[in-house]
Each structure stands twice: as C-alpha cells, then as structure tokens.
Design a protein that fits this description.
This protein is an all-alpha fold. The protein contains 4 helices and no strands. It has one domain.
C-alpha cells in the first residue's frame, strides 16, 4: 500500500545523481553545465572527456551525458 509520504522511485540516469554528488563533491547542475560547455562533442566523446579530465567512472559519466543531451537540466 502506498502512502502520500513516499517519493516515487527515480529511474534512468537521474538515479545515479545522489551517488555522483556524494562521490565527486559537485552538484549535478555543475556537471551538466560543464557538459553543455563542450560544444560539438558527441555522447561518447563527452563520456571519455569526463572520465579522463575529471576522473568519473563510466556509469556516472554516461548518466550525466545522457541526461544533459536529452535536454534535461
């Protein structure tokens, strides 16, 4: 039975966001802004850039890029 106090479970790339913020110490909005500042890069180029430049793991980088490129901020 569901109560009004329960939050809906977050799905998709956003489900990684609490872990990303905790692990890397930056809010998701900052990561999204960094991704948007990289003009002309494709999805996997952005994932690799985040991994190489900022030390993100593949899953976290992929989740941020997918979210950013989907136009969700």
């Amino acid at each position: 039975m569901s109560t009004s106090n329960e939050k809906p479970k977050v799905k998709g790339p956003a489900s990684y966001f609490p872990s990303i913020e905790k692990t890397y110490g930056r809010p998701v909005g900052e990561w999204i802004a960094l991704i948007h500042a990289q003009d002309g890069m494709k999805h996997m180029e952005l994932v690799n850039w985040l991994k190489q430049t900022h030390g993100l793991g593949h899953g976290h980088a992929n989740a941020l890029v997918a979210h950013a490129l989907a136009g969700k901020t």
